[in-house]
């Protein structure tokens, strides 16, 4: 149940960010839910592979390259989902930063499991 709530909160954050950022657009609320699911799956499957492959660059940049990996994951979601559009890697970078900020803010209101 908590996973569904987190996905719905992420979808709300995607819609809000699409309204705020001119370089990002989402066709509908249903598309935002699909975007939240695809981003969660890409973070679960693709991100660990990219982190391992780019470990030397990540170490040299003191972890800042992880921001680029997050932007690449957003661009991959843009590629896979028809109603989700991100204009450039810079918009993807800003979107991923703000999405992480919104997620941490929204998830802080959820009760913790004991």
UniProtKB/TrEMBL annotation:
Tree of life domain: Bacteria
Residues passing through the membrane, by range: 28-46, 53-77, 89-110
One Pfam family cited in the UniProt record for this chain: Phage_holin_4_2
Keywords assigned: Membrane, Transmembrane, Transmembrane helix
InterPro entries for the chain: Phage_holin_4_2
UniProt-listed PANTHER family: SLR0284 PROTEIN (PTHR37309)
Protein name, as recorded: Putative membrane protein
Organism: Aequorivita sublithincola (strain DSM 14238 / LMG 21431 / ACAM 643 / 9-3)
């Amino acid at each position: 149940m908590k996973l569904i709530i987190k996905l719905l909160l992420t979808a709300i954050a995607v819609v809000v960010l699409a309204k705020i950022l001119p370089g990002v657009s989402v066709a509908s609320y249903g598309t935002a839910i699909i975007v939240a699911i695809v981003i969660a799956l890409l973070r679960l499957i693709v991100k660990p592979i990219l982190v391992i492959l780019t470990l030397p660059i990540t170490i040299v940049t003191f972890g800042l390259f992880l921001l680029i990996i997050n932007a690449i994951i957003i661009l991959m979601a843009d590629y896979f989902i028809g109603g989700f559009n991100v204009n450039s890697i810079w918009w993807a970078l800003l979107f991923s930063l703000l999405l992480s900020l919104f997620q941490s803010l929204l998830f802080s209101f959820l009760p913790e499991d004991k």
